[in-house]
Amino acid sequence: MIISKKTLFRIAFFAIPLFFVSMAKAQTDQVEGLWYNDVKSGKILITRESDGKFYGKVVWLKEPLKNGKPKVDELNADPKLRSRPRLGLQVLSGFIKDGDTKYTDGTIYDPLNGKTYSCNMTFKGKTLAIRGFIGISLFGRTTTWSRAE
């Protein structure tokens, strides 16, 4: 069977983009995607940004409104930031992958008290152990997030 140049071109035209799309998906890290917080009141989308670090932002809230208006970051220490919406708020910042399952040197922002903590994450299959702390991780608290798909 002889394949014409036109047919070969058509195959390449469709196959090459599919190859690159599949390669991009293959390079997705295990922590990337949607995660429920520990009490399932919000979903956080974790992505790897162009700097190679991992970040997470709130993309869904179980109760997005307060008094009929979108919830805002009212407890932030910076008065200028208190009017920013909680939906879309970046809560995880600057994580570096450290081995197969550890992500270190990041921070987590807690909109329920307006404070930012040093943070490490450990991937455990369908869960993610999030350890926020001040100073050293010995003095901190761990919560478990679950995969949301």
Structure description:
The structure is a single chain. The protein is mostly beta strands. The protein has one domain (28-147): Lipocalin (Beta Barrel). It is built from one helix and ten strands, in the order H-E-E-E-E-E-E-E-E-E-E. It has an eight-stranded antiparallel barrel with strand order 1-2-3-6-7-8-9-10. Strand 6 and strand 7 (102-110) form a beta hairpin. The model is unreliable at 15-26 (pLDDT under 50).
Can you summarize the main beta sheet?
8 strands, antiparallel, barrel
Overall residue-averaged pLDDT value: 88
- How would you write the strand order of the largest sheet? 1-2-3-6-7-8-9-10
Q: What order do the SSEs take from the amino end to the carboxyl end, as H and E?
A: HEEEEEEEEEE
Q: Care to count the β-strands?
A: 10
Q: Summarize the amount of helix as a percent range.
A: 10-25%
Round the Cα radius of gyration to an integer and report it: 20 Å
Q: Report the CATH topology name.
A: Lipocalin
Instruction: State the name of the first-level CATH class.
Output: Mainly Beta
Q: Number of DSSP helices? A: 1
Structurally, how many domains make up the residues? 1
